[in-house]
Design a protein that fits this description.
- This protein is an alpha+beta fold.
- The chain has one domain.
- Helix content is about 60%, strand content about 10%.
- It has a four-stranded mixed β-sheet, with no helix packed on it. The chain has a two-stranded antiparallel sheet with strand order 3-4. Strands 7-8 form a two-stranded antiparallel ribbon.
- Strand 1 and strand 2 form a beta hairpin.
- Helix 1 packs antiparallel against helix 6, helix 6 runs parallel beside helix 8 and helix 8 runs antiparallel to helix 9.
Amino acid sequence: MKEQLSRVTGQLLLVYNMYPTIDIFGHTIGTYTICAAIGILLCAVVGYLLIRKKDGVCIDDLIVTAVFIVVGMVLGGHVIFAITNTTKIIALFQNMGKYSFIDFVQILFGSYLGGMVFYGGVLGGLLALHLVCKHSQFGHPDVMYDMYAVCIPLFHVFGRIGCFLGGCCYGVECKLGFTVHGNTLNPGINDVNRFPVQLVEAACNLIIFIVLLTLHRKKKFEHRLLVVYFFIYPVVRFILEFFRGDEIRGFLFGLSTSQIISIILLISALVITCIDLRKARLQE
């Protein structure tokens, strides 16, 4: 990365060459894939350390659960991404006669089904975890939900770093920010100074991870850390969405898809909390 000081505006601009892919031993690998893999491995280690002394949970359970969660995250992320492109997909099928079969498949799976939405991954992973806990012999399945809550922001840290390196989920044009050169996947963002919203969100997720990990270690909000997460992150995401510059997210009523999901998750957390408080009062 190279720093440049603009003599005209007097502002510090960070200019760097984009590396959406890296060649390793003759194989081209996306930088996002590498970052995501690092995040998954770290989450596996942290998850094991969190539940290794819990009754009714063994290392085999954790491995199986982790595999199901990853599959659920991938499927959920693609499903929500496809939903955000519903109008484009319908239009593509209506005009499929204009494309060759190869072009049609490339557009459908490359552009409209190929991406992933974070919230879709979270919900898909949560559904997979629920199914595993429901059909397993876990003594205390709630500990798995707490583990999942702690690991989500940790993975998201590396996911957003991968977004920054890959050039997706970029920020709005900004006088003070980063100027990208050499992005072949999103050439439209080249030579435009943008707010580094991906790195800001990575930093926010790191803070959320530290908070949830601290609560877990102090045994605060046991079996409700996922609710705590849905109180914090949706607020952060709702605000940061205003600093996003990409239009691929989908919009409804002036809000992005992620903002709408943030509202739903925050309301869900409030409802669950109210139910818990009511149950506590009845027990007293």
